[in-house]
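New to this. Help decode both lines:
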Amino acid sequence: MNLTQETVKVRDRELVLFKPRDLDFYLEEGQGLADFPFWAKVWEASLVLADFVATLKPPKRILEIGAGLGLPGLAAAAFGHQVTLTDYESRPLELIRRSAEANGLKVRVARLDWFEPADLGEFEIILGAEVVYAGRLFEPLLQIFRRYLLPGGEIYLAHSRERARVLVPFLKRAEVEFEVAHSLRRLRSGDEVYEIVLNRLRPKGF
């Protein structure tokens, strides 16, 4: 894999992320949308989530799911948290390991299949950026929350507002067992302004 580096500033820290240099291959004729590596981009939602994580008082035991390039989890580690970063695919996990090493960060990196979750322990905080994207994943995602979240723990999810068509039904279902709070964050990049929905989920009864 031909790689490049992207430097991202989170509060007063600069983090180096390894990512594929050229995505044109995935856009060539014959490559379908399913072949495109959505994990290979620093999404605006991950920038917002990383910035938020920097405000949490360490040390917390944190799990990032669907980590992709791992910015929120790496940011959490940079700000003193104990972090496990997970994804389903092996390629982003390899890049996360390289990025962690380049930044001098100690993190745990593990493959996670939402349909057959491994024993990773329990966590005070679960993070996810752009992880709600298909109705068939609603129940597996909720099972992940039930399995890995410590009693009284919190889940923080960040999504582009454009995902509302899928995100809103998921949050409605989640409200059966979680208290859900919403915050709208705006991120400016050049002439573009991105609207990111940040959600906090807390198990009811705590």
Remarks:
- The beta strands are 3-10, 13-20, 61-64, 82-87, 108-111, 123-129, 149-160, 178-189, 192-203.
- The chain is about 30% helix and 35% strand.
- The radius of gyration is 16 Å.
- Residues 90-102 form the longest helix (13 residues).
